[in-house]
Amino acid sequence: MTDWRPDRLARRLPHLRARARLQASMRQWFADEGFLEVETPILQAAPGAEVHLAGFATEWELPNGEANERWLHSSPEFAMKKLLAGGLPKIFQFARVFRNAEGSALHHPEFTMLEWYRAGVGYEAIMEDCAALLCTLGVDQLRWDGHVCDPRAAPERLTVADAFVRYAGVDLFATVGNAEALSGASGVAMHAGDSWEDVFFRIMFEKIERRLGVGRPTILCEYPISMAALARAKPGDPRVAERFELYVCGVELANAFGELTDANIQRDRLEADMDLKDQLYGVRWPVDEDFLAALDHGLPDCSGIALGFDRLAMLASGASRIEDVLWLPVR
Among 3, 12, 55, 234, which lies 20 to 30 A Cα-Cα from 276? Predict the structure, then answer.
């Protein structure tokens, strides 16, 4: 409760100054690239689309006394895609976002997400953006938990299927839908009631993630289509989605999509995800009808990414906890 005290603030100040420099340099990069910085509302009809995240609910009271449920967004993605549908071609945002029931060295209930979108390009262009941005950080090394990474090194591009072969000895697509087969092939335990996706993520956590982004960044791409979320299927291979994650020092920094633009498919996915959320947690979020209307109006072919800015600031400044790079943590 005393993070403002001079002694405690002074201990964090080197990390906080590094954070400020980092944000300024990244804003300059986006300006040089012709992006427009936008700000979208934190209060939304739905906080996001994630099955396993918990949200913060609130109530918007109108002057006539009518009350409307609203949520603190977990990402500005829906709102930013509405702006793309409105005709903006290249946009970015440093957004305060909120995720309940989270707290660790790498997690905080309120944090900063850097999101950017490009219309008219494939998600490979976002991969190139990531490599270019990492070169603007002004540091020679990114560090975390004993690992180091050269931010200026060309990122390794690794498919999810190849990562499972390399680090877990598993032919991933030979086991799709069969949790027992995936568990047996990998040697990672299966718990009662586990789905195939549950075992997938346990393998990622136990065998794969900590090996990614060591020495140089890793772009882990082509996730199984069942984990497509808001991404479109990859042309020529319907088993996988145009989705990648950026890893540095074993830490996931960003999640990117070649964006799904079909409103009907998107509605089906959102409703299926909420059915699963209800089944697992007894909670469902409303579908943002305005977001689906924007897709129906005509979301252009586009790609986008969400990057955890606080995590990047940690790795660039040598901080050991996310709270070290927050001006005042939530208490």
Answer: 234
